[in-house]
């Protein structure tokens, strides 16, 4: 009897994860150990409206199913930017997606693929991936920060995503460190994102280089962008720092210190003492992580100071899609 059942029910061996970004849609097949077996990336037609984007997701998933048996699939997980209502499977107003108000993405996908479907905020997906298969796999609780274009976050409590009663927990990027500080995209002032998010950090670097140029100092950063300071990206600063450029090191040390200041407040509130830092900056030199650690340690309450750990995320750009797949595992 048992044997017949086993023969009839195919073993579930993998899940599909989709990372719906404003620039690219990344989809993959992930085995039960979090290993990527297959993946596809397409440029997101985010300006064409939700119907086209949803269609793109369907097509990529369909393509993965041509090589992997749908009967062996546990389900489809999708990570989306912005606000996601996980109860209704709805994606609301994702930033940088044109004409997108509220889309019941889970329902639409399930209509085409009769499999379990789960939708989650993209930063939460990346946090979950690090919790299950990455830097946070040996800790029960940690604060996750994605430092890249913006500053995103997630909270892992007892190995699960902590969403809060209204679903919006973990917005670490909008912790303000100065109520008179620079204006943030969200309308508040002094949010950490308004200091170290890609656009702000690049602008600040440009400013510093221009004032240094007056003093006759020339930074490696200028060489890397061939004098065109508009082209400065955090990776440029990081590369210059790796080559020993003093200005670049100072800028990243300051940014690390500011993030440390933010995290000290978060740690004071939550008393979760492990932080996993992901996003583009997770490839930055060690001194940036040391600066974050120092920034936390010098400001957090004394009783919270022991056992503070700042870890580098290990899954890189794949964290979002691996985490999405983990939603249905
Ligand atoms: Zn903000």
Notable traits:
5-stranded mixed beta sheet; Nucleotidyltransferase, domain 5; 3 domains; alpha/beta; binds zinc ion; 329 residues; 11 helices
General description of the model:
With 329 residues, the chain is α/β, with parallel strands linked by helices. It has three domains: 135 residues, Nucleotidyltransferase, domain 5, CATH 3.30.420; 125 residues, ATPase, nucleotide binding domain (Nucleotidyltransferase, domain 5); 48 residues, no CATH class. It contains eleven helices and 13 strands. A hairpin with a 3-residue loop joins strand 1 and strand 2. The protein is globular. The relative contact order is 0.15. The model has no long low-confidence stretch (mean pLDDT 93). The chain binds zinc ion (ZN). The site of zinc ion has 6 residues, from loops.
Q: What's the short story on this structure?
A:
Helices cover 38% and strands 21% of the residues.
Give the SSE layout.
Elements: H1 2-8, E1 14-20, E2 24-31, E3 36-43, H2 50-67, E4 73-80, E5 83-85, E6 90-92, E7 102-103, H3 105-112, E8 117-121, H4 122-133, E9 142-147, E10 151-157, E11 160-161, H5 193-196, H6 198-214, H7 220-224, H8 234-242, H9 246-270, E12 274-278, H10 286-297, E13 309-312, H11 319-326
Parallel strand pairs: 1-4, 4-8, 9-12, 12-13
Antiparallel strand pairs: 1-2, 2-3, 5-6, 6-7, 9-10, 10-11
Helix pairs in contact: 4-11, 6-9, 8-9, 9-10
The structure holds zinc ion (ZN).
Zinc ion binds at residues 174, 184, 186, 188, 191, 193.
């Amino acid at each position: 009897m048992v044997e017949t059942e086993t023969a009839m029910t195919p073993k579930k061996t993998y899940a599909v994860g989709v990372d719906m970004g404003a620039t690219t849609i990344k989809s993959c097949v992930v085995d039960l150990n979090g290993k990527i077996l297959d993946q596809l990336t397409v440029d997101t037609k985010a300006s064409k409206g939700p119907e086209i984007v949803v269609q793109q997701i369907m097509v990529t998933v369909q393509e993965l199913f041509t090589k992997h048996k749908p009967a062996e699939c546990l389900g489809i997980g999708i990570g989306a930017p912005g606000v996601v209502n996980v109860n209704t499977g709805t994606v609301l107003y994702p930033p940088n997606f044109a004409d997108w108000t509220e889309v019941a993405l889970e329902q639409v996908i399930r209509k085409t693929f009769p499999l379990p479907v789960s939708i989650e905020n993209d930063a939460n997906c990346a946090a979950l991936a690090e919790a299950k298969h990455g830097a946070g796999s040996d800790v029960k609780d940690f604060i996750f920060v994605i430092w890249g274009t913006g500053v995103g976050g997630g909270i892992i409590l007892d190995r699960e995503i902590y969403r809060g009663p209204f679903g919006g927990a973990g917005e670490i990027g909008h912790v303000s460190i100065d109520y008179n500080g620079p204006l943030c995209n969200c309308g508040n002032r002094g949010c950490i994102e308004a200091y170290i998010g890609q656009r702000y950090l690049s602008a600040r670097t440009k400013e510093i280089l221009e004032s240094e140029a007056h003093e006759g100092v020339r930074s490696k950063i200028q060489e890397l962008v061939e004098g065109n300071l508009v082209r400065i990206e955090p990776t440029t600063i990081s590369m210059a720092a790796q080559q020993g450029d003093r200005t670049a090191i100072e800028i990243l040390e300051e940014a690390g210190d500011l993030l440390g200041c933010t995290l000290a407040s978060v740690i004071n509130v939550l008393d979760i003492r492990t932080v996993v830092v992901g996003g583009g900056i997770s490839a930055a030199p060690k001194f940036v992580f040391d600066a974050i650690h120092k920034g936390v340690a010098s400001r957090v309450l004394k009783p919270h100071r022991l056992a503070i750990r700042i870890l580098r995320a290990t899954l890189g750009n794949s964290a979002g899609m691996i985490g999405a797949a983990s939603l249905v595992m």
